[in-house]
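Researcher: Go.
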Amino acid sequence: MKQRTWVTLCVVFLFIVSTAAIAQSANTNWDSVYNAGDLAASISAGVAFPFAIVAYPGAELILAGIDIGNLIPIDFGVAARGQFGILSASSLGYNYGWITLGAGAFGTAHLSFNNLRDHFAPWLENFDFYLSLGLGVNYFAYTGDWASVNSVSKPLRVGFASFEGVNWFFRENMALKLEYAYWGYVGSQTTFGILLKL
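Model: Structure:
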């Protein structure tokens, strides 16, 4: 899973570099969707194998932004994310499942494309590509009949976690999310959600 995260990082980096090259050749500029001090709340959810429900609520504070070559605005912030997952099933009178709860702290970076309507790629208008890297702690336990036959040697774990994805701002302060979440022991999922900029 760590290999997927590094591949994602490389793709994001190549996207930024290629966008910068196109922007410089067209002498293009655009705005960020964020300002320093902006606070955003979000939640995303998805399905993890085998058919478990996972959710990632969170809050982020934008700390600062830089403008690379007066062309590309990149915003940096800090975020807190929660993690919840549950599997509950039964078969032939046998109940089984697991539950996991977690919390983590992250550094974030955003590349957004606001006011791009009259420029080289108007379809990018209001898109915000982001990356969050940090540490997460989570508690994992079996439930139902699994609890009596399975034990977890380390129910509380700390490890690397990341979120990569894209927000599409369909309103000035609201966006739809598509993100890839990796949370160590819990695994990785593609999730969908919503973001509200406060």
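Model: Residues 20-28 have pLDDT under 50 and may be disordered.
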